[in-house]
Automatic annotation (TrEMBL):
Family according to the record: Belongs to the UPF0126 family.
Keywords: Cell membrane, Membrane, Transmembrane, Transmembrane helix
PANTHER family: INNER MEMBRANE PROTEIN (PTHR30506), UPF0126 INNER MEMBRANE PROTEIN YADS-RELATED (PTHR30506:SF3)
Top-level taxon of the source organism: Bacteria
Cellular compartment(s): Cell membrane
Keyword Cell membrane among UniProt keywords: yes
Main location: membrane
Organism: Microbacterium istanbulense
UniProt protein name: TRIC cation channel family protein
A Pfam entry, by short name: Gly_transporter
Keyword Cell membrane: yes
Transmembrane segments: 6-27, 39-60, 72-91, 98-119, 125-145, 157-176, 182-205
Domain Glycine transporter: 10-87, 100-172
Amino acid sequence: MTEPLFTIPLWADLLGVGLGGVQGAMFASGFQGQRRLDWLGVAIIGIMIGMGGGLIRDILLGLQPASLQSNWYLLTATGAALFGMLLAGLFNRLNKVIVVLDAVVIGMFGAFGTSKAIALGIPEVPAVFIGVCAAVGGGVLRDMLMGLPTAIMHVGSLYAVAAGAGCTFIAVANSFGMPITLAAVIGIVITAIIRVLAVSFDVSLPEQRRLYRRRVATETGIIPIVRVEN
């Protein structure tokens, strides 16, 4: 595959890795009981969140992962994870900060994935898919390592939907001539806003079983149907 016409600046990529490392460490530090982690475990989770999205993005694009071509990626992810772990007590009392940080990380990985795919000549729809995979990839790896149900597969606060909206904007805006850098910045903002609003107002997609709830209730009479009378 040829080199892209647009490359993600190193500082921007490292910023995403660092924020992801902090967010991952804060997530892991909050577990109690049988899932308590030691420092190494927390650091590993932080590193996987920080680097997982970029690894998945470059693998899908058929490129050598950028995070393995420089010392700074692993050093940044490790340092950020330790920082997040040491300050977890403070951050865990600031729920709004954690929510916003998580939303920004999702937006950045999604925007970087979509932008890099478009720059390599990938069509818009696959480019959006790659961006969403990059956005949620770190979280999927985290859940797998910790033996947790994969969050993206269950009812939640528009995790992948927020990333999809931001990535779709980038692809559409760029197809209409907007510079990819500007489109990526706006895409990050869109993703972050949707994610924060979804968490704040507890918005999620309907459960699959609700599609058939009314029909089953009618056929079996087990689940009551409430009729509103004017």
